[in-house]
Specification:
The chain is of the alpha+beta class. Helix content is 47%, strand content 14%. 22% of the residues are buried. InterPro entries: Cation_antiport_E.
């Protein structure tokens, strides 16, 4: 009789790696946003360019949409103002530094892509990896 530990399923390892990767990405983004807001407080009016931007979502479930909205709102300098599910899912996001709405939308989309990669199962057919076991950015 073997007394060794049970092997960890591959999907658990992949999921844990994805969650850790997102946590690291989000921690860096959080520090950067906090530094930008702190700099704005110390030097008022230096880069402030507020705007409200509509960001189309790839998130499909209520949980995914809520997680993306929460992650956006947790980042200093951004706030989710509204979520629309019909006809297509989209967030309305206020950004303190949104002088370039296209770049701002791209940054929120990047956050969503990374979050969905962490939340969705490894072989999710609608996932950011197209059902592959590892996430690869195209």
């Amino acid at each position: 009789m073997s007394t060794g530990a049970m092997p960890i399923p591959r999907r658990t390892v992949v999921r844990a790696r994805r969650l850790l990767r997102f946590a690291g990405y989000f921690a860096v983004r959080l520090v950067q946003a906090n530094l930008a807001v702190a700099w704005e407080i110390l030097t008022p009016g230096s880069r402030l360019a507020p705007a409200v931007v509509r960001v189309p979502l790839r998130a499909t479930t209520d949980t995914e949409v809520a997680a993306v909205a929460l992650a956006v709102s947790l980042t200093p300098g951004t706030l989710t103002l509204g979520v629309h599910r019909e006809p297509t899912a989209a967030l309305w996001v206020h950004g303190m530094y949104a002088a370039d709405p296209v770049a701002f939308r791209r940054a929120v989309t990047e956050l969503e892509w990374r979050l969905l990669a962490a939340l969705r199962p490894a072989a999710h057919p609608d996932g950011p990896d197209g059902g592959q076991s590892e996430v690869t950015r195209r």
